[in-house]
Every structure is written in structure tokens, then in C-alpha cells.
Amino acid sequence: MKKLLVIPSILFLIPMIGFGQVTKEREVVGNAGEVILSRGLEVSWTVGEVAVDYSESANLIVSDGFQQTDYLTTEIGELKTIEGITVYPNPVEDQLNFEIASHQVNDLRGEIIDANGKVVIEIEPFKAIDGYHSQLDVSQLPPGQWVLVFRSTSEAKQRTFSIVKIR
């Protein structure tokens, strides 16, 4: 009977011992705060913001904010601007004109986007050469502010316009 109790106890304790070895220290870097220890009780508080700035040297990083132990850095490359596009009239009622006056040949596509970021009109890809002119029917759009974006299909270039639709 004792053997039956000892074996499950050992099997239960082995995982507990293994998991007990893995710990992660809590770290807080704050603008203000304090830790108070008293008879086995720990109370801590901080006042701060999530990392708004940090300074770095060869062997030291100082950050503003709290709980900043793990950093994930990303980079978003800046898009170049497509030059030589004219959009008129703005404000617009029914037909929006756009002209390309560029010496570069670009394969472009376009879209009109609402305030929520939803594409409401797509402009099919076209070859933009010097002197290109086209019209876009915006009569079905309700009055308001819209974003017109032209993007290159082959390069990281774009041009953005704010369009006001009236009536």
C-alpha cells in the first residue's frame, strides 16, 4: 500500500521541481515609485508612461516608462513621392481630373479611401506617361473628405491627396 502512495507522489513532485526552476524577474523602470517590504508583504507602485523615449550608450540603456525589459524594434522604410501629378477640381462635385506631367514612366494604380481606411473606389493600373490625363467619376460618393492615393506598381513610391466631395 505504501508503494502505491509513494510512486504517484514522486511522479507528481518531479514536474513541480522542474517548473520551479524557471523564473523571470519582474523589472520596472518608472518615473516615480516605491517598493515597501514588511513581514513578508511586498507593496510596489509606479507612475510613468509606456516607453516614450530612451537613450543608449555602449553598455547602458535608460528608458522612460514602465515594464520595459523586452524591446521589439521595427523599421518602416519611407516611401518616395511620385512627382508631377495634378488633381483638380478640389472640392469636387462629380468628375475628378488627374494629370501626369512627369518625365518618368510609371505604372500606377490608385484608390479612394474613406475615413475608416476602407477602399471605396479602385483605379485600375495604368501607364503614366508625360501628358496622361484621365477623369474619375466620384458622383456616387457622399459629401465629405476622402483620400486619393496613387501608388507605383513597380517601386516604393506613392502620392496622396486629400479630396473634398461636395453635393
Descriptive report:
The chain has 167 residues and is mainly β. It contains one helix and twelve strands. Strands 5-12-11-8-9 form a five-stranded mixed sheet, with no helix packed on it. A three-stranded antiparallel sheet has the order 6-7-10, with no helix packed on it. It starts with a helix and ends with a strand.
Indicate the topology.
Layout: H1 2-20, E1 32-38, E2 41-47, E3 54-56, E4 61-63, E5 80-81, E6 85-88, E7 95-100, E8 106-113, E9 119-128, E10 132-137, E11 144-152, E12 157-165
Parallel strand pairs: 5-12
Antiparallel strand pairs: 1-2, 3-4, 6-7, 7-10, 8-9, 8-11, 11-12
Describe the structure in brief.
With 167 residues, the chain is mainly β.
What about the largest sheet? 5 strands, mixed
General form: elongated
Q: How does CATH name the architecture of the largest domain?
A: Sandwich
Give the topology string: H per helix, E per strand: HEEEEEEEEEEEE
Helix content: 10-25%
Provide the gyration radius in Å.
30 Å
What is the β-strand count?
12
Number of discrete domains: 2
- Structural class comes to mainly beta
Number of helices: 1
Instruction: Quote the average pLDDT.
Output: 76
Summarize this structure as a short list of keywords or feature phrases.
elongated; mainly beta; five-stranded mixed β-sheet; single chain; Immunoglobulin-like; 1 helix; 12 strands; 167 residues
